[in-house]
Amino acid sequence: MKRITLPLVVAILVAGCGTSAPAAPPPADPPAGVSVTLAQWRSDEPMHTLQVAVRNTTDTPVYFADVQLVTPSFTALPPHRTDATIKRTERTDLRIPYGAANCSPQGLPDVQRATVVAHVSTGSGQQPRKVVFPVPHPDPLLARLLRDECSAFLIKQAVTIEFGLEWKESGKAMRGELVVTRRGSGAVTLNDMGGTTHYIVTPERRPLGTLDAAAQRLEAPIALTPGRCDGHAFAEAKKAFLFPVRAVIDGGEERVVIVVPPKPLQDRLIAYALKACGFGR
């Protein structure tokens, strides 16, 4: 067997190190006449999705293979497959999910610049190329989403707010409690609880109550009654169970956290509302 000499081994290693995969091409500029903005419909909110609204002012169709929101303010998700050909249009929406807000225990962050990254092509047979679309800064939708999520984050650092387990139909209302359980430090006051498209919330008192800094648990009685009794309201119940609770920590700025009842209670509330509204008799 032939021996491989040390100089030959070194030469082979050097040659191997000099061989690398071709560098990816830099992102291309957006096609002429094509721009994007961000929007969100009511049905997007519970799904944590938004719309990339595409505008094409030319007669050249543009194919979007995938779309991705990129910003330091939200966790980046993988590109979302869209497989959409956009012809001349003032607005065509591409729905995509977006990641969780990047929040800080120190307070509400400022929204950072954002881009929409997509793989697009403008001619038949062309391979899609990576294109970076700038989003006008500051984007009002991203600023609101960041504020809302990080406000809830700050409250959740201090307490857990949940629907209690015991709910009973009393008169024309469903009555139960909102339960606040200690997680972090600070006195937490629940100023109010708002209703939804389906339910009116009537607390026993306003503010609902304060969890003192030394206390571990607070129970705030509330009553729920139907907000609307028409069939359209029940058919469009996209936000029926997203209840906003307004709270402050140690007398600071009021924050909003969305509280959602568990699925078994949601089913009970729907059955109650249908009965209270005279449906299904």
Can you lay out the helices and strands and say which pair or pack?
Elements (H helix, E strand, L loop, with lengths): L5 H12 L16 E6 L9 E8 L5 E9 L9 E7 L2 E9 L17 E7 L7 E6 L5 H19 E5 L4 E3 L2 E10 L5 E6 L5 E5 L5 E3 L5 E10 L4 H5 L7 E7 L5 E5 L3 H14 L5
Antiparallel strand pairs: 1-2, 2-5, 3-4, 3-6, 6-7, 8-10, 9-10, 10-14, 11-13, 11-15, 12-14, 15-16
Can you characterise this structure?
The chain is an alpha+beta fold and 281 residues long. The chain has helices at residues 6-17, 140-158, 231-235, 263-276; strands at residues 34-39, 49-56, 62-70, 80-86, 89-97, 115-121, 129-134, 159-163, 168-170, 173-182, 188-193, 199-203, 209-211, 217-226, 243-249, 255-259. The strands form four sheets. Strands 8, 9, 10, 12 and 14 form a five-stranded antiparallel sheet that branches. Strands 4-3-6-7 form a four-stranded antiparallel sheet, with no helix packed on it. It has a four-stranded antiparallel sheet with strand order 13-11-15-16. The longest helix has 19 residues, at 140-158. The protein is globular. 25% of the residues are buried.
